[in-house]
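quick one, 480 residues, struct below
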Amino acid sequence: MFVDRRQELDFLNNLLTRSHPGPAQLVLIYGRRRVGKSELLMQWATQNAAQNGLPFTYWEAVKETATQQRARLFAKLLNVPVSAAPVYRSWPELWDAAAPLLQAKRQILILDELPYAAEADSAMLSSLQYAWDQHFQKSELVIVLCGSQMRVMETLFSRQSPLFGRMTSQWRLEPLPFSSLAEFFPKWNADARVATYAMLGGIPAYLNWLDPGMDLIGNIRQVILNPGSMFLAEPAFLMYDEVREPSSYLAILKAIGGGAHTLTEISEKSFIPTTSVNFYLNTLQELHLVERRLPVTQTKAARGRSKSGRYHLSDPYFRFYFQFLEPFLSTSPFDTEQVVEAVRRNLRAFVGVTAFEDLCRQWVLAQARAGQLPFLPDSIGSHWSSKVQVDVAAINWKTHDILLGECKWGADRVDRQVARELIENKGPLVLKDLPEKSEAWRVHYALFARSGFTPAAVAEMQKVQGSLVDLQQIDAVLGR
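---
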């Protein structure tokens, strides 16, 4: 099922109309595994073939010898079986032979999972540089390089890469937005879609694996927890594909997923020395699986030397897996109903501190872009210190405006006490944490609630002209 990606398709289609630096294009498309890179490229290429008659060749490298890879690529170019394709001893030989086929007319060449080809033959990338410089730079060929190994793909930008300076465009493919879940699950209500977003994020493959004909708990029981399910093997599979010491990385991910957020806590829970933990965390951040969060209320100068950073799993499924599934996987036999019961008990709190808070911040960003906030934030995040924690914070350092918001994913309506706590206690404490005097700041308040607000809470917020945002409003802005 292909969903959304309108912006990405526009980007790719624009490549076909460019005349500068020339009609030839060398483009990098990268992103984490399962995010939908190959599906996007095939959708784009087949659409242009059907609508504009533009030919394309799609080749995906697999883990085999370089000779086998070259044979399969040339077979694709000739549209013949691999057994009928010529065999080339080196990549430069292949590109010299392929040049007449690719230079003759406007066409697309997609080289997918490029890191596997580079791993099989370290000369592959330099030969591609040679082919671009000698054959294709002055042609009308559009070459798209694609891959899932994030660190390898991002090194193609570095000065050490043979392709440095040759790329004409690049695009990092992100997970789908929350709005896309309505297309995957058209009959699910907003509550179920937010819970699913908390568990799986916007990874198209994961969303496709679920059955829209069942409810969420049914999917957890029959799809996610099904013996042999890809969901159960996914974290280990991804780590074995990306790093050489997967067990150490998995231990750190498990520690963070279990509630360790500082270097000391992560070291203690993973049984890895603090000096080594830093190295692993840096790699996990490069893979976009872990992020270091800082209070948004810290100045740019303070953020550079801050020691208050907290490490969090940035991938929603990894958060769900390490909190709900991994603790039970070591038991034999695996008790499905025990996991389902744990999910039933704790999912509400999990959704509240992950997806719902994130969607509330996204709502603030969307409203700011639409000109619906009283100021334009420089940054949006949250605030914490030894004295106070606030779920949503947006700040403009020049105008001295700050928005503070609390998020509640409970089944009951938010009452006046929550509003008073935010306005009378948390607000003043946040102002004390800011570098300028509190009198310099204009404070704006917001409450976000799944189930709405009591009349007393509404009255309390009206006194300070605060915003009251329920799930229906969030879904109207972000969910459709």
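The chain has a mean pLDDT of 94.
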